[in-house]
Amino acid sequence: MRLAELSERSGVTTATIKYYLREGLLPPGERISATQAEYGEEHLRRLRLVRALVQVGRIPVATAREVLTAIDDDRTDQLTRIGTAVAALPQPAPPRRRDETVVTAEALAGELQRRLGWRIVVDNPAHQALVTALAALLRLGYPCTVEQLLPYGAAADGLAAHEIALIGEFASPTTQLEAAVALTVLYEPVLLSLRRLAQAEAATRQLRGPS
Amino acid sequence: MRLAELSERSGVTTATIKYYLREGLLPPGERISATQAEYGEEHLRRLRLVRALVQVGRIPVATAREVLTAIDDDRTDQLTRIGTAVAALPQPAPPRRRDETVVTAEALAGELQRRLGWRIVVDNPAHQALVTALAALLRLGYPCTVEQLLPYGAAADGLAAHEIALIGEFASPTTQLEAAVALTVLYEPVLLSLRRLAQAEAATRQLRGPS
């Protein structure tokens, strides 16, 4: 298809598509003349992912490019590609200095993951993000023990199994990688808004009694 | 205690405490002379909450003030206060225009909550945030059916029961309200980082086989 059709089918303006092409977020089309290029279904699919990252996830263009580069890096296996792509997504900043609280938070993050039966990968940015979040709880004196954290880990475990099954429904390794990244970003606000709704429901039930 | 002791015990500089006092994030101390005021344990506790909101949650000062005003509003009952306080926390913006996708997303959000046995409160900002998140999934053509969403709702339900129990351990209605707000903000990054770690673990198990 030509640029105009790609724009119509994706709902993205031709100016924005050209911008994504210049920024390397979209691979170039196949040149068919000096001024025209042909685009395929993979461009349509990639545009969808770029919009998930940039428009919905509000991820900076440079970060989105890193994520897509990891997806496309065919020198590595599927697992490394998915790990690198998800790790490139924005994460909370790691703690600025490694004080006593951070050391306690690291021990807590490790113990929690051991209890959940997970491998501990300290250079996973999500591990660092967890340590930062636990250090904030500890520093402010809010409850934060392995027992209190386990329900969150168990919930995440259940969701991950569901998500891996969902991603498995996509046909090829590349579409699976793209879906993994898009669903990671797009389901975060779903989960957080459902948590707040569930809290409101639980508070109402407890304070007003069952409906 | 005097300002200097409040600063020492909270780890917040006197300049920042004075700023919070001026901005109405902290109630004034009891004046004991023209230049000195006396502060109590409630100031220390409130400072902890303000830091959770402003420093960790990166919530704008004006928004934090709204949240605290709702907590302190003794004209309303506990349930209204908790609802108003949590609703005042930052949420994703609602959809800009109510097109066909938004209508579908609203129906989906309603059906999901019915299936979970929750009351549907359309003016809860979290309900609007859920509709926005579902509309983004639908618009980009990613999987988004009630069946696929139910595991997220069930996970949120389980966590809410745990959180209500956690909050119930705080002594007074006011400290419970403060804890509800602080834990809503502080546990969001815990949940999101655990989800990413669980995904990494599930992907590793599936692609490499059990350890």
From TrEMBL, chains A, B:
Gene Ontology MF term list: DNA binding; DNA-binding transcription factor activity
Keywords: DNA-binding
HTH merR-type domain location: 1-70
Source domain of life: Bacteria
Protein name: MerR HTH family regulatory protein
Taxonomic lineage: Bacteria, Bacillati, Actinomycetota, Actinomycetes, Kitasatosporales
